[in-house]
What we know:
Chain A is an alpha/beta fold.
Amino acid sequence: MKTVIVIGNGMVGYKFCEKFRAHPANASYRLLVFGEEPRPAYDRVHLSEFFENQDAKALELAPASWYVDNDVELITNQRVTDIKSELKEIHTMSGDSYSYDQLVLATGSVPFVPPIKGVEKEGVFVYRTIEDLEGMLAYAAQIKAIKPDGKAAILGGGLLGLEAGKAVLDMGLEPHVVEFAPKLMPRQLDARSSNVLRLKLESMGMQVHLGKATNQILGDKVIEGMDFGEDDQLDVDMLIISAGIRPRDELGKTCGLEMGTRGGVVVNNKMETSVKDIYAIGEVALYNHMIYGLVAPGYEMADVAVNQILGSPEVIMPEEIDMSTKLKLMGVDVASFGVPYMPADKGLSIIFENKTKFLYKRINVSHDGKTLLGGILVGDANDYNILHQMYLNNMPLPDNAEELIVGARGEGGSAFGSAMDLPDTAQICSCESISKGAICSSLIEGKCNSLKDVISLTKATTGCGGCKPMVTDLVNETLKSLGKEVKDVICEHFEYTRQELYGIVKVKKITTYDEALDKCGKGDGCEVCKPALASIFATIYNDTANKEEVIQDSNDRFLANIQRNGSYSVVPRIPGGEITPEKLIVIGEVAKEYNLYTKITGGQRIDLFGAELNDLPAIWKKLIDAGFESGHAYGKSLRTVKSCVGSTWCRYGMDESVSFAIELEDRYKGLRSPHKLKGGVSGCIRECAEARGKDFGVIAVEGGWNLYVCGNGGATPKHAILLAEQIDNETVIKYLDRFLMYYIRTAAPLMRTAAWLEKLEGGIEQLKKIVVDDSLNLAEELEIEMQSLVDKYECEWKQAVENEEIKKRFSHFVNTDERDDNMVFVPMREQKMPEAWT
Amino acid sequence: MESIASLYTAVDPNKVSVWFKACKVNDIPENGGACVKYNNKQIAVYNFKRKQAWYACQNLCPHKMEMVLSRGMIGDADGIAKVACPMHKKTFSLETGENLNGDLPSIATFPVKVENGFVYIGFSE
Ligand code: SRM
Ligand SMILES: Cc1cc2nc3c(=O)[nH]c(=O)nc-3n(C[C@H](O)[C@H](O)[C@H](O)COP(=O)(O)OP(=O)(O)OC[C@H]3O[C@@H](n4cnc5c(N)ncnc54)[C@H](O)[C@@H]3O)c2cc1C
Ligand code: SF4
Ligand code: FES
C-alpha cells in the first residue's frame, strides 16, 4: 500500500481528498492529511456568514464522519514543520515523522501584513480564519460596550477588504476603507466603475479613503488611529488588514523546492514541483508566475494532482485561467469577467453609466464586433452569468452589441435567449467543473428530478454559489421540457401552493373547509390541508380555532398542547414576561387545586402540565376570571414577545423594552400564521432578550430601535437580519405589520420566517424594498389587513368557557363523565410526570 | 402494555352479536370524532360526513399506546378513509385498520350503524 500525505486541510486540500477518493484507481492508497487549524476544512469563501450566525458547523465542507467513512486519516491541530525529501518523510510539530510516497502541499496562504510601524498593536486583525473572526467579534463587542459610535478601518479596498467592510458594518461599527491605489478593487474595476461603486458604498454608510499610504498605527498599546503622513490622520478603534495574500511556502524553502521571486512554490501544468513526488496546489502554488487567490483554479489544481498521482497523466492544467468574479458587496452587485478594461487598440468598449442609480456596465468587444472580450458590471449583475458564458464559449454577439447591457428588455425580449441556448460543453459551475450537459442529462436520464437532486449528484453550486441562478434556470427549463412541473403543492387534495390557495380563498370568498374542497380541491382532505386552510381562514377572517374545530390540528382543537400521556398543558399569556404577585398566586392556586406540574418556560412564562381534558374548561375559567388570556402555546400563531428588563431598571437600558414588548405582544396575540411566531425586545445591544433569535427582534439603540427579522432558535438556528435602523415605536409597528402580513400571505405551511426569507427571491434586500420602500405598492393594504385582524381579536378560551356547546368538546368520553383510566402519572421530584414510554 | 392492545380485535360486520347504543348522532362532530366507553374499552367513533359514512376503531394508538385516536383529524389517502394520530401523525385506514405511513400493527375497527338519531357500535362479545 502506498501513502499520499496532504499538508493542509483547507478548501483545496479537502477538495483533493474528495476527488482522490472518488477516483476509480484510489483503493491501494493510504491518504493521510495534516491540518494546522483546530477543525476540519471549512468554506472560507463564505467565511463572512460567520458574522451572521457564528455557526462554524454550517461552514464545514464535510463533517468529521466523512473523513472516517471515506478512509481519509485526518489529523487536525497539527502543523507539519519539516519535509525531508531525500528520506521521503515529514515531521510534525509534536515531533512525529511519517513517510510518504507522494506529498501534496496545500498549505494555502496567509494575509499579507505590510511592515507598518505599530501593526502589532492590540485591535489590529487579519481576516482569514474562523479564529480571526471570533477575535474580531469579541473585540468589536468590547468597543461597542464603552463607545457606541466606535470606528473600524479596513486596510485594503480589494474584494476581501470590501467584504470586511460589510462585516464591520454588521458588527455595528463605523466602517472606513483605506486603499493605497486611487480606486477600489483595482484588479477588477476600471476607474469609472470604481467611482460608481464608491458612491454607492458611501451612500450606505461606508467611508472610503483612496490613495492613502499608511505610515504608522497610532496608539499606546491599543490602536487609536492611523497616520497617513503629513497632517493626515484617521481615528479608529480597530483595524482589519486586507492587503493581499502571501503563499505559505515556508516548507518549500526548507526542502529546496524552486520558489518564485516573490514567494510561492513553482509548479508546472501537472502540479509537480521541482522535486520528484512533491506536488503543490491551491494558494501556495505558483503557476504561470501567478498565485490565483480564488477557489475555482485551486479546485482544478486538486483535480490535476489527483489524476497525475493516480495514473491519468493526460489531465493537465489549462494555459489560461479564468479570473472572472461576481460578488455581492453589501447588497451591491459587482462583477468583472474576461479582460475587464484595456487600451483602445485591443478592442472597443460599450459603456453605460447612471450615477443616480449607481449603475455601471461595460463590455469590451473585438474590433470586428464579433466577440466579447470581457466586461464590468456594477449595481446590477443579473446578466453576468450569461455574459460570462458568451465570453467563455466565444459565442457570436448580436448585431447591436449594446443591447446586451442597455435598452428596455421586457420579459422574453432578452437579447441573449436563455441558458438553454448554451452549448452542452459550457461550464456552468466552474468551482466544481460541471457543464451544462452534465446538469441537463442528469435530469433527462432520470437520475435526478429536482434542483436538490442535481446539487447532491453533481455538487454544482456548492462552491462559491455564483452559478446558482443559472443552474436553477437549467433545471427548471429542462424539467419543463420533460413535461414535469415544479411546484410546492399542499398535498394530494389541493394542487396549489399555500400562497395560491390563500389568493383563491380570498377572491372566491370561501369560508368553510368543505367549500374549499368542493371549489378547488378534490377528495376528502387530510391532516396536512385541514390545518393549512384553518390558518388561511384565520388570517383572512380572523376566525378563532373554535369556528371549525375538526379542521384544526389537535392542539388547536382542544386549545392546549397534548402531552405524552394524553393530558394537556395550560399556558396563560404573560406579555413580555411581566406578572404581578397577585396573578402569580392565582397560577399557584390553580396548579395546586388541579395537581399540575409547574415549570417556567423558555419563553418567559409559566406552563402548567398534566391537566386532564375534562378539567381544562374549569382551569381556564379560574385563570380568565383572574384576568389571564390564552397564551396560544398550542397554535401556529404568536407565542411570546420576550423582553429584557430594559431602561426601567437596567443601568444600560436605552429604552423601555418591557413596555414595548407588552405592546407588541398585545398587538399580535392570536395572530395565526404559517408557523409559530416569536418576538423579542432588548433594551440595548447586550441583547439579554435574545431578540435576534426570534422571528422579529427589536433592539434599542441610540436614536431609536433597530428592527431585525427572520431569526429563530430551534432546529436550524438563524440570527435575525437587520431590516431597519433607528426607527421610532410607530415605525417599528408599521414595518412589523407589513412584514408579518406579507409573510402570512406568502409562506408555505409550517415554514418559519427564516426559511421563508431564504426562499424569497432577492432575499433581505427585496424584503426591505417591500416593507420599507413599499416597492410593491402593498404597504397600505397590508397595514389595513393587520389592523382588522388586531381589532377582531378574541380570546378563544374565553369563547370556550362561556359557551356550553364548545365546553362539551372537553370530555374524554361522550357517553359518560368518567375520566381516561389509561392515563398514568408517576412522581417527579416534588411534582408529577407521565409514566415513561417504553 | 401488550395487554391493553390485546383488548382490541377487529369485529367482522357479519359477526356482530351486540349492537351497543353508544351516543346520539350529534354527540360526534361532523367530519370529526369522539370517544365512547364500552365496558373496559375505549372506542373512537367518526362521523365522516363527506363520505356519508361512520367509522369506529380502537382509541389506542399502537405507536406509543396512548388513548388519543378519537382526537385525530380524519381524511383520505387515495380515497381510503383514514385518521391521523394527534401525537405523531401516524395515519391508519379506517376501513382496514392498516398503518398507512409506517409499519405499525393495524388498529382494530368496528362496524357502526345509525338508527333513529343514535349511533350503535357492533361487538362480538
Ligand atoms: C414549554 C417549552 C419548553 C420549556 O419548558 O421551556 C416548549 C415546549 C414545546 N415546544 Fe418549544 N417550548 C418552549 C420554548 C421554545 C423555545 C425558546 C423560546 O421561545 O425562546 C424554542 C426555540 C426558539 C424558537 O422557536 O425559535 C422552541 C423551539 C421549538 C421547536 C422548534 C422550532 C423550529 O423552528 O425549529 C418546536 C417544534 C415546532 O414548533 O415545530 C417546539 C415545540 C414545542 C412543543 C409544542 C412540542 C409539542 O408539540 O408538544 C412543546 C410543547 C409544550 C407544551 O405542551 O406546552 N419548540 N421552544 C417552552 C414554551 C415557551 C412558551 O412559553 O411558549
Ligand atoms: C474572507 C474570504 C473570502 C473569500 N472569498 C472568495 C470568493 O468569493 N471567491 C473565491 O474564489 N475565493 C475567495 N476566497 C479565497 C479562497 O478562500 C481561497 O482561494 C481558498 O481558501 C484557497 O484554498 P487553499 O486550500 O489553497 O488554502 P486554505 O483554505 O488557506 O487552506 C490551507 C490550510 O493549510 C493549513 N496549513 C498551512 N500550513 C500548514 C502546515 N505546515 N501544516 C499543516 N497545515 C498547514 C492552514 O492552516 C489552512 O487550514 C476568500 C478568502 C477569504 C479569506
Ligand atoms: S426541546 Fe424538544 S423535548 Fe424539550 S420541550 Fe422543546 S420540543 Fe419538547
Ligand atoms: S402515539 Fe400515535 S402516532 Fe405516536
